[in-house]
Amino acid sequence: MQNNNAAAIPDFFIVGTMKGGTTILYDFICSHALVTRAKEKEIHYFSLYPQKGLQWYLSHFDASPGTITGEASPTYFDVAYTGAIPSWIHAFNPDAKIILIARDPVERAVSHFFHLRNINKVDLLQDMDINQFFSFPFEASLTQTTQADYYLQQVLYFSCYSRKFNIYRSVFDRSRILVLHNKELRQTPQDTMNRTFQFIGLETFTSPEFNEFKYSSGKNSNVLTPAIRKKLSDFLYRDYAHFCEAAGIRFDDAVESRP
Known about the structure:
Blueprint: E1 12-16, H1 22-30, E2 35-37, H2 54-58, E3 68-72, H3 75-78, H4 84-92, E4 97-102, H5 105-118, H6 130-133, H7 147-158, H8 162-171, E5 177-181, H9 182-187, H10 189-199, H11 209-212, H12 226-247, H13 251-254
Parallel strand pairs: 1-3, 1-4, 2-3, 4-5
Helix pairs in contact: 5-7, 8-12
């Protein structure tokens, strides 16, 4: 829906996933003349900051008449342990369009590790090799008895999409959910953006910027030893296959890290 009122509310939500390409996708969407960018790309109101209140949230949006607006908060998907977050978004705007951009879960996990080490500056990880990090027992991450277990659980869970996607499908009609893949945004950006603009109700346009943007998703899985790559693939790809089937994505096309 287009905003013609002074009090703008977001029309679309890029809900995830972290290290999946949400930033570049949001930039591409906001390059459209009829999209007004939010004051912050990631607001995380429905997941991390509900205590700040609705007026605080709405203060991030100021769409001009005849334009639409939206935001991109990966935690809306990544921490959707239950239906609470999507249900709250739906109650806030039942006409909202939901966009999920997924990424090969092994590649995403690798990028997440380097984000924790290089961006979040987690002390524990500063002198730890990525293969050492993923060599810790995955089952131990469930108890989170150590700091390493805590971060390992986060990295692994954020790379599991199936259950969270099914939760969103139980709240929003499937026609209101667009699933994109990081690989298609990288390889066919114009076609991918055409689908995206059509989904949120805007005319498509051609931009050379879609091909010129730099993708800085962190290091890829070539930093993994064959044994660790296989360990991650065996753990994550079963869930990924279920997600791809539910989302209408060809699993073979969406895998980049086969052991």
